[in-house]
Amino acid sequence: MISVKDLKLAFGKRVLFEDVNLNFTKGNCYGVIGANGAGKSTFLKILSGEIEPNKGSVDITPGERLAVLKQNQFQFDEETVLNTVMMGHTKLWSVLKARESIYALADFTEEDGMKAAELEAEFGEMGGYTADSDAASFLSELGVEEEFHNALMKDIPSNLKVRVLLAQALFGNPDVLLLDEPTNGLDIETIGWLENFLADYENIVLVVSHDRHFLDAVCTHVADVDRQKIKIFTGNYTFWYESSQLMARQINDKNKKTEEKRQALLDFIARFSANASKSKQATSRKKALEKLTIEEIEPSYRKYPGIIFQPLREVGNQILNVEKLNKSVDGRVLFKDASFTVNKGDKIAFLSRDPLAVTSFFNIINNEAKADSGKFEWGTTVTKAYLPIENSEYFEKSLNLMDWLRQYVPPHVTDVDEPFLRGFLGKMLFSGDDVLKKTNVLSGGEKVRCMISRMMLQNPNVIVLDQPTNHLDLESIESFNEQCTDYKGIVLLTSHDHTFMETVANRVIELTPKGIIDRLMTFDEYLVDARVKALREEMYH
């Protein structure tokens, strides 16, 4: 168990946490959520001992081992991949090194022999004799091929380093596991493996993630970081979100009788309790929800941005036609023979096992890059807005947000006064003096919110989104997701956010080195379709 008592942390006048009292118990997975800057990652660092609080204590049951997902990809550059994983179990690693140093002695005494025997016994009890194979198994499950296992960390691709560090954290069955954004850099299949692993994990897990599908799959509880406090709620992220929204609506609805509100909440709990039986964390979550009382449901005090795309006109019959587009980089084929037509009502999820493929494709159809061959043509009725994955070129000038947005006012808008611009920025939670902020001091999340303001200003009937959830907090992701689901125009989308892809898209196109796979189905249907699975393997091999 982890016990947090009277915790306080402040940086100067800024108080991050005050009077935080919590218990985290075995068998539960806690999703740590909160707005950007609320202190989620900082809280994990306090639990791990990396940051010392101003006041209070963190106590872990004596003898229990804590493991943390390391963020520094260069920390183990001079170690082999296998050794880096085994170093996650610090006690096992120290015994291993002590054992090796004794056996390396030139003059091996009787006393050394006794010490070696003690170390051998300790090493065996900790599973040392299968450590190599256990570490190799974790690596393979996480998509790190055997050819890299004995390579130095500095010599392997950066996208594999994050997987090695994840294997390091999971290695040796730690009693407490702290994971900060563990799905970053993982593909769909590996995320699925991690979801299954954590759903079956019997110890304590605390995880910070912006991936709602992942949180729903693994979490039994939500630890909500808000207003200098942390509160634990039963259920996964979706249950927390929907129940807090329902409570907020009921508080605002003064005409409803108390008993009607109570019954609505009880029905809501019962419905979610039934749904929990279908989840990977079925038993523990279902039991927890059945014990839940309505007094435990609280409204969320978070602010959600108002993302609204309002097309000036409906798209015509000709939207986008793509013919035999090809693109390679440094001899690597990103995609080949991409040919398809976008139809009315399409909301298309694009994916590829090569992360550069979809970004290159989106840049090509938005005239920001050139294809090696092939062509594409947009319809004359199309007004599109593009959210690129990389936005630094849009913020090279040091302008305040009002002047920055003014640059992108389309020709059809004539009355551009301060209230007009403030309205678009205000929807993205830039209020008061925030609109006078300079663009060169914006955070990653603030830049994305500016880019969304720019998109809304275009009144598009087609939106193209490359990783739209990057840098955004869960509140912004929820609002963005809901708008794209309700949006009457065309959506071309790629995202690591499983929920975003599943709830928005009605068609899936996968770009591969041997052509495209194009299916009129939801994202989840695409992932489980046996014929699609077989075709995907063929296209990549």
Structure description:
With 541 residues, the chain is an alpha/beta fold. It folds into 3 domains: 1-64 and 175-302, P-loop containing nucleotide triphosphate hydrolases (Rossmann fold), CATH 3.40.50; 66-174, no CATH class; 320-540, Rossmann fold (3-Layer(aba) Sandwich), CATH 3.40.50. It has 19 helices and 18 strands. The chain has helices at 40-48, 81-86, 90-103, 110-125, 131-141, 158-170, 188-199, 212-218, 237-252, 258-276, 282-290, 355-365, 401-406, 418-427, 444-457, 474-486, 498-504, 523-528, 530-540; strands at residues 2-11, 14-24, 29-34, 55-60, 66-68, 176-180, 204-208, 221-226, 229-234, 320-329, 332-342, 347-351, 373-378, 384-387, 462-466, 490-494, 507-512, 515-519. Strands 5-6-7-3-8-9 form a 6-stranded mixed beta sheet, sandwiched between helices. The longest helix is centred in the middle third of the chain and has 19 residues, at 258-276. The protein is globular, with a radius of gyration of 26 Å. The two termini are 47 Å apart. The model has no long low-confidence stretch (mean pLDDT 90).
CATH class call of the largest domain: Alpha Beta
Radius of gyration: 26 Å
Overall geometry: globular
Query: Fraction of residues in helices?
Result: 25-40%
Strands ordered across the widest β-sheet: 5-6-7-3-8-9
Into which percentage range does the β-strand content fall?
15-25%
